[in-house]
Amino acid sequence: MRILAFGTYDVRSHPRIGVLLEGLRAAGDDVVEVNVPLGIDTAGRVAMLRQPWRLPLLAYRLARCWALLALRGRRAFRAHRPDAVLVGYLGHFDVVLARLLFRRATIVLDHLIFAADTAADRGEAPGAKLRLLGALDRRALRSADVVVVDSDEHAAMVPADLADRAVVVPVGAPAAWFAAGPAPRPDPDVLSVVFFGLFTPLQGTPTIGRALGLLAADPRIRVTMIGTGQDRPEAQRLAAANTAVTWRDWVPAEDLPAVVAAHDVCLGIVGAGPKARRVVPNKVYQGAAAGCAVVTSDTRPQRAALGDAAVFVPAADPPALAAALRELADDPPALRKLRDAARDRAREQFAPAAVVGTLRARLTSIPGSTHR
């Protein structure tokens, strides 16, 4: 197939679209990109939509990016004649432009997040803003012929009249994460644990912080917490008694796989909100690909994705999380087995070529598509 990847996405900040492109290329598809990054991350976009006075900046940046996208997109479309146009993650606005530019094309939207759902998870109260974001979600979904989501739970959120457009494609992990691990253990007597993220409510980092506080007297467990965001101050306060915790603001995207692979355990999410029960976070896929044991919340989509290749703990339960880490520190053979199981699971199901299978099947079933 011939695919035109289109939009203001940023692969460095949002690896999901990178996984899709890697997978399509690995499957033999001819992929051309027309990409002008907007330069505003997920938190920034949601903040702008929640704070109307910031919308002129978003409109200005979008206008600049769209002028280039329109020029380059038309040129690439004429030259490439794609079977489908894939609009990258955070493409709520970009998919509307794609629909206007490529009226007869099959438009695919990577709809990893629902704007209204994300804003509600981050504390937005019901009201006009959430209704506006809900309308933005519906407009984006209606502009696409195929809607890519990451779990059955998210597929169920697609409006009933558009439900047949949804296809579930796991987030997966880029090839760089598989190349990074598993790394040798620098100290076999110490359990090294890593978390990386934006410290959003979905991730449940205050629960992680409280669990780390409970582990303050255990010298066998060392933890690296990477990232900044809404809940970091509270997480750091709750973990303050534990001097074996290292806090890092962030790690460059190209260095992060190696940093994570140097640890025994990668923490997923432990948030208790509705959104946390619907997702499998990218750090779960990436940590498994890097050869880490994965410890994450006990939810249906995460169990479906990981099977017996992870340790599952109740959401929002600091003692349970602390106990799970102690058990892994107590049992090195079990830790090795879990690391191997996570790595094997990732190779079989989370590699880019594996995750795009359902998307390719959907595209090749559309009348007029080609396959080579």
UniProtKB/TrEMBL annotation:
**Gene3D superfamilies xrefs:** Glycogen Phosphorylase B
Q: Per the UniProt record, which residue ranges are transmembrane?
A: none
Any one GO molecular-function label of the UniProt entry:
glycosyltransferase activity
Keywords recorded for this protein, A-Z: Glycosyltransferase, Transferase
Q: Key word Mitochondrion present in the record? A: no
Q: What SUPFAM superfamilies does its record include? A: UDP-Glycosyltransferase/glycogen phosphorylase (SSF53756)
What is the name listed in the Swiss-Prot or TrEMBL entry for this protein? Glycosyl transferase, group 1
